[in-house]
Amino acid sequence: MQTAYKFKLQPNKKQVELLEDWQHKVGYVQNRSLGDRIATYSNTFVQGDYCDLHSRREVCSAYLYCDLETQFLVSPLHCSVNKSASLGYPWKTDNPKLRRAKPDKDGKIKPFNPKRSAVELHSSWLTEFKKSHPEYSTVNADVLQQSLRHVDSAFNKFFTNEAGFPNFKHHSRVGFEFKPGTVKINKNYITFPTLGTMRFFNSREIPSSWEIRTVTISRDIDCWYVAVLLRDETVPDVLPKRLEECKTIQGADVGIKKLIALSDGTMIDNPRFQSRSARRLEIRQRRVSRKNIGSNNRRKAAKRLAKVHQKIRRQREDYQWKAGKQTAQNADITVFEALNARGMMSRCKPKKDETTGLYLKNGQAAKSGLNKAIADAAWYSLRQKTKHQAAKLGNLVIEVDPKYTSQECPECHHISSGNRDKEKFICEVCGHSDDADTNGAVNQAHRGKQKLGIDSLLVVSQKVTPTKPARQEASSVPRDESRNPAKSTVKQRQLLLLKVKSTPSQSKSRTKSKRKVLEVQYTQLSLFDSFDGDARESKTKTS
Ligand SMILES: [Zn+2]
């Protein structure tokens, strides 16, 4: 099993200087390597097999390119040796002693491939580069090599659709990765190669049986951190449950008013950390923009601003880890909607007056508030964290199509926007009513069941608790009825139904909406009774 611990480092002044110097150097090497990869990648889209774009010469055929002598004559844009990198020497030295023959799956040993891969090319470039730039020898050689591997893995992830196109990194965000077995930890002292020993806050004890693997130093706005990857082969990994083993399924509807609504009626609040600190952010941001560009005071003010952002980020992450755990524990399978948050945050189309040619209000001002709330909720990272927490328990997380989950009736599958009355769901056809978010979650759970094709899964849904809401309604309903709503006459129920249907069009004031909620709760009960056992069963755990 593998896990990672993160600690706060306490480097001394000299070590901080050294670390900052390393950031510049490692950052340069990483960005140079990335620049070369990007340039060669874009050249693959050029039509024709040119080795040199300006002269349009096909050098490969004429020169059989690429010993070091010709490398300086023409740039190897489309050389057949390696199309993913151009820095460095492209051929391997054919030294049989250095060859590491790896047998493949069938046990056959592959013939020697004389071409170097992109990382090997860049690695050979780095050794040459360090000869011409001796100041780079102060940086640990493995750290530099590791940074090249990061670029390679970034491109590999891009090619396999796991990540977006790699970006250049500012030196302040560059971290260093040390190879396994090179870093040692003793009490609250950590020893890195080349950097030396420094103190750290030993906030959680590393069990002695765990082996220290890769160690990464990173920088945040307040200080330096170290992430230690730990591995223990004797501790088995938690395997994800097989589909036959799963018994329960739940829907998790993410939103803004409530961060998560589960299909069993559980609501997880959305604390809106960003909007809570909005005023402070505004003040700090204004202080930055009033300072002269490039001045020391501006730098200091920017640091203070960044600390506010950091706090918000940490609050949100902490909350999401906990919310994710609560969600993941609830059922064997959790179903999320595959929401496209970026699409939801897109800008409104501009409106133009045809006669005057002037631009009219298009509602973007109002939408920007919503966009901020969507960004603040950070649904994607919430989903990722839930997945992580579920994986720890062996539970599964799947995603389904979000289309019409909020408008569909789970009883009769009637889809209409009229089914929704703000936060309440009342089906126009069968009269099924529920909280709109819970209803969406139930729909998701059913879709998840369909997607997996297992009918035997139990949907974790609300239990029937007719007494509780009835007590709230005690003031408006006679006592006997509130204890046993089944006794109320059919006429009374019909009257109440009419009352509810007329309420949505009433005024929007808060007091009235509260009253409405209570009334709707009551009808929920009366509807239960009017649809007898069927509705009742559907409210409990159904298969
Ligand atoms: Zn219905």
Task: Report what the structure shows.
The chain folds into three domains: 11-44 and 83-181, no CATH class; 248-267 and 313-462, no CATH class; 465-543. Helix content is 42%, strand content 15%. It has helices spanning 13-43, 59-63, 68-71, 118-132, 141-159, 273-276, 278-289, 296-330, 341-344, 364-377, 379-393, 436-452, 467-472, 479-483, 490-502, 510-530, 532-539; strands at residues 2-10, 176-178, 184-186, 189-192, 196-201, 211-219, 224-231, 248-254, 258-262, 267-269, 333-337, 351-352, 359-360, 396-400, 420-421, 424-426, 433-435, 458-459. The strands form four sheets. It has a seven-stranded antiparallel sheet with strand order 2-6-7-1-5-4-3. Strands 8, 9, 10, 11, 14 and 18 form a six-stranded mixed sheet that branches. The protein starts with a strand and ends with a helix. The structure holds zinc ion. The site of zinc ion has 8 residues, from loops. Zinc ion (ZN) binds at residues 409, 411-412, 414, 427, 429-430, 432.
